[in-house]
Design goal:
The chain is mainly α. It contains six helices and no strands.
Length: 192
């Protein structure tokens, strides 16, 4: 097969490709024949070494189909843009959820902890005041039975106040731990 016959047959099999791509492929194979002539080979030897024009065309169509079916690789900048947009959407969704549902519940929890703290302090100081007042009344000549009942009441109030303060410490610690975990979860959700 001569160079002209080979290139004509190759052009026939490549006709479904765009004209510019056909010309580029034909120019490459024309170069193969020129190099073969420079090395002292005949056109028939070069054609045999190159293979069937139909197989060459089939390979080009296969490569083209693989290139079309392979999705383009996103650049890092495009991927970063997508991640920023996704993080922004998650941030806005979490902000709405937190504002509508979580914030009122959190404020109720904080109010409960502060209320317990106030009650504990009030009971403890109230009990201390009852003890002090009863002892002062005993010194000023109040009946011992009345003074002792006032001291006993004061001790009971102060003990109840200390128990409420201990409960406040436990509930407050849980509340703070939950708040920190929830905030970390929010930050992780936004970062992903």
């Amino acid at each position: 097969m001569t160079k002209e016959q080979y290139l004509q047959e190759l052009r026939k099999f490549l006709q479904r490709l765009p004209e510019s791509e056909q010309e580029e492929i034909l120019a490459d194979y024309d170069e193969h024949f020129r190099m073969g002539q420079a090395e002292g080979r005949s056109d028939a030897e070069t054609a045999a070494a190159l293979g069937s024009p139909m197989e060459i065309a089939r390979n080009y169509y296969t490569q083209r189909a693989a290139a079309v079916s392979t999705p383009p690789v996103e650049s890092e900048a495009a991927a970063d843009d997508v991640n920023v947009l996704r993080s922004l959407i998650v941030l806005l969704a979490l902000a709405a959820f937190n504002l509508i549902l979580v914030l009122p519940l959190w404020l109720a929890g904080a109010g409960l902890v502060l209320g317990l703290l106030g009650a504990g302090i009030g009971l403890t100081f109230g009990g201390g005041a009852a003890i002090t007042t009863s002892l002062a009344a005993l010194i000023q000549g109040m009946a011992a039975a009345s003074a002792l009942s006032g001291v006993a009441s004061g001790v009971g109030l102060a003990a109840l106040g200390l128990i409420v303060l201990l409960l406040t410490f436990i509930v407050g610690r849980w509340f703070i731990q939950f708040t920190v975990r929830y905030l970390r979860w929010n930050a992780d959700a936004i970062r992903r």
